[in-house]
Amino acid sequence: IPGPRSLSVVYNNVRGFVHTANLGQISPDLCVSKVLEFQDFLYSHSPDLVIINETWLKSNINSNEIFPHGYKVFRLDRSAATHPFDPELPKKFRANGGGVLIAHRDDLALSSYKFDRFSTQAEILSIIINGRDLSLCFSTFYRVGTLSYDNLSNF
Known about the structure:
The protein has helices spanning 32-45, 150-153, and strands at residues 9-13, 49-53, 71-76, 100-105, 111-115, 123-130, 135-142. By secondary structure, the chain is α+β, with helices and mostly antiparallel strands.
Protein backbone atom coordinates (compact mmCIF):
# COMPACT_ATOMS: atom_id res chain seq x y z
CA ILE A 1 0.00 0.00 0.00
CA PRO A 2 1.57 3.32 -0.94
CA GLY A 3 1.67 5.74 1.96
CA PRO A 4 2.88 9.15 3.01
CA ARG A 5 6.62 9.85 3.18
CA SER A 6 6.23 11.40 6.63
CA LEU A 7 3.57 11.75 9.30
CA SER A 8 2.82 14.76 11.48
CA VAL A 9 2.00 13.53 14.97
CA VAL A 10 0.36 15.50 17.80
CA TYR A 11 0.13 14.29 21.40
CA ASN A 12 -1.86 15.98 24.17
CA ASN A 13 -3.08 15.13 27.64
CA VAL A 14 -6.32 17.11 27.41
CA ARG A 15 -7.44 16.40 30.99
CA GLY A 16 -10.96 15.96 29.79
CA PHE A 17 -13.33 16.89 27.02
CA VAL A 18 -16.03 16.74 29.74
CA HIS A 19 -16.62 19.30 32.51
CA THR A 20 -15.27 18.04 35.82
CA ALA A 21 -18.64 18.66 37.48
CA ASN A 22 -20.36 16.37 34.92
CA LEU A 23 -17.93 13.44 35.14
CA GLY A 24 -20.22 11.28 37.27
CA GLN A 25 -23.23 11.68 34.98
CA ILE A 26 -24.30 8.86 32.67
CA SER A 27 -24.57 11.30 29.74
CA PRO A 28 -22.16 14.12 30.56
CA ASP A 29 -22.07 17.33 28.56
CA LEU A 30 -18.93 18.08 26.62
CA CYS A 31 -16.80 21.09 27.52
CA VAL A 32 -17.72 23.05 24.40
CA SER A 33 -14.88 25.59 24.63
CA LYS A 34 -12.25 22.83 24.92
CA VAL A 35 -13.78 20.83 22.04
CA LEU A 36 -13.98 23.93 19.82
CA GLU A 37 -10.36 24.86 20.61
CA PHE A 38 -9.28 21.30 19.75
CA GLN A 39 -11.29 21.27 16.50
CA ASP A 40 -9.84 24.66 15.53
CA PHE A 41 -6.37 23.19 15.98
CA LEU A 42 -7.28 20.21 13.78
CA TYR A 43 -8.69 22.45 11.03
CA SER A 44 -5.69 24.79 11.18
CA HIS A 45 -2.93 22.18 11.27
CA SER A 46 -4.49 18.95 9.89
CA PRO A 47 -2.16 16.61 11.77
CA ASP A 48 -1.86 13.14 10.28
CA LEU A 49 -1.93 11.39 13.65
CA VAL A 50 -3.47 12.56 16.94
CA ILE A 51 -2.78 10.83 20.26
CA ILE A 52 -4.74 11.93 23.32
CA ASN A 53 -4.68 10.85 26.96
CA GLU A 54 -7.27 11.59 29.66
CA THR A 55 -10.15 12.12 27.25
CA TRP A 56 -12.72 11.53 30.02
CA LEU A 57 -15.10 10.25 27.34
CA LYS A 58 -17.82 7.64 27.81
CA SER A 59 -19.36 5.26 25.30
CA ASN A 60 -22.41 7.47 24.80
CA ILE A 61 -20.23 10.28 23.41
CA ASN A 62 -19.53 9.74 19.72
CA SER A 63 -16.07 10.37 18.32
CA ASN A 64 -17.59 12.63 15.66
CA GLU A 65 -18.62 15.02 18.46
CA ILE A 66 -14.90 15.62 19.05
CA PHE A 67 -13.28 15.01 15.66
CA PRO A 68 -14.39 16.60 12.41
CA HIS A 69 -15.20 14.45 9.41
CA GLY A 70 -12.05 12.97 7.92
CA TYR A 71 -10.48 11.20 10.90
CA LYS A 72 -10.54 7.52 11.78
CA VAL A 73 -10.70 7.30 15.58
CA PHE A 74 -9.68 4.44 17.88
CA ARG A 75 -10.70 4.84 21.53
CA LEU A 76 -10.34 3.08 24.84
CA ASP A 77 -12.58 4.75 27.40
CA ARG A 78 -12.20 4.04 31.11
CA SER A 79 -13.96 0.86 32.22
CA ALA A 80 -14.00 -1.52 35.16
CA ALA A 81 -11.51 -3.69 33.26
CA THR A 82 -8.97 -0.90 32.86
CA HIS A 83 -9.53 0.65 36.29
CA PRO A 84 -11.04 -1.78 38.78
CA PHE A 85 -12.20 -0.90 42.27
CA ASP A 86 -9.48 -1.47 44.88
CA PRO A 87 -11.06 -2.45 48.25
CA GLU A 88 -7.80 -1.54 50.01
CA LEU A 89 -7.98 2.04 48.67
CA PRO A 90 -11.71 2.77 48.30
CA LYS A 91 -11.29 6.55 48.55
CA LYS A 92 -8.86 6.61 45.64
CA PHE A 93 -11.11 4.78 43.19
CA ARG A 94 -12.14 6.85 40.16
CA ALA A 95 -14.92 5.37 38.05
CA ASN A 96 -14.79 8.37 35.73
CA GLY A 97 -12.02 10.12 33.86
CA GLY A 98 -9.08 8.50 32.09
CA GLY A 99 -9.47 7.25 28.56
CA VAL A 100 -7.09 7.30 25.60
CA LEU A 101 -7.48 7.66 21.85
CA ILE A 102 -5.49 7.58 18.65
CA ALA A 103 -6.84 9.02 15.42
CA HIS A 104 -5.47 9.49 11.94
CA ARG A 105 -6.63 11.35 8.87
CA ASP A 106 -8.61 8.98 6.68
CA ASP A 107 -7.39 10.54 3.43
CA LEU A 108 -3.89 9.10 3.90
CA ALA A 109 -2.93 6.19 1.70
CA LEU A 110 -2.51 3.68 4.50
CA SER A 111 -4.39 1.01 6.37
CA SER A 112 -4.72 0.77 10.14
CA TYR A 113 -6.16 -1.48 12.78
CA LYS A 114 -6.44 -1.57 16.54
CA PHE A 115 -3.96 -3.81 18.33
CA ASP A 116 -5.48 -4.79 21.65
CA ARG A 117 -3.84 -7.96 22.85
CA PHE A 118 -3.02 -6.53 26.24
CA SER A 119 -4.08 -7.98 29.55
CA THR A 120 -3.51 -5.38 32.22
CA GLN A 121 -5.48 -2.97 34.34
CA ALA A 122 -4.53 0.21 32.52
CA GLU A 123 -5.64 2.05 29.43
CA ILE A 124 -3.29 0.90 26.66
CA LEU A 125 -4.15 1.50 23.04
CA SER A 126 -2.02 0.71 20.01
CA ILE A 127 -2.68 0.91 16.31
CA ILE A 128 -0.66 -0.53 13.48
CA ILE A 129 -0.32 1.65 10.41
CA ASN A 130 0.75 -0.05 7.20
CA GLY A 131 2.31 2.34 4.72
CA ARG A 132 4.50 2.37 1.64
CA ASP A 133 7.54 0.39 2.76
CA LEU A 134 6.99 -0.29 6.42
CA SER A 135 4.52 -0.78 9.22
CA LEU A 136 4.51 1.39 12.31
CA CYS A 137 2.97 0.81 15.71
CA PHE A 138 1.75 3.85 17.64
CA SER A 139 0.74 3.42 21.26
CA THR A 140 -0.49 5.43 24.18
CA PHE A 141 -0.73 4.39 27.78
CA TYR A 142 -2.54 5.81 30.78
CA ARG A 143 -2.19 4.20 34.17
CA VAL A 144 -4.05 5.96 36.92
CA GLY A 145 -1.92 6.54 39.99
CA THR A 146 -4.23 4.61 42.31
CA LEU A 147 -3.37 1.26 40.70
CA SER A 148 -0.50 -0.70 42.14
CA TYR A 149 2.58 -1.94 40.29
CA ASP A 150 1.18 -5.49 40.47
CA ASN A 151 -1.32 -4.80 37.71
CA LEU A 152 1.57 -4.36 35.25
CA SER A 153 3.50 -7.46 36.29
CA ASN A 154 1.08 -9.65 34.27
CA PHE A 155 1.49 -7.49 31.17
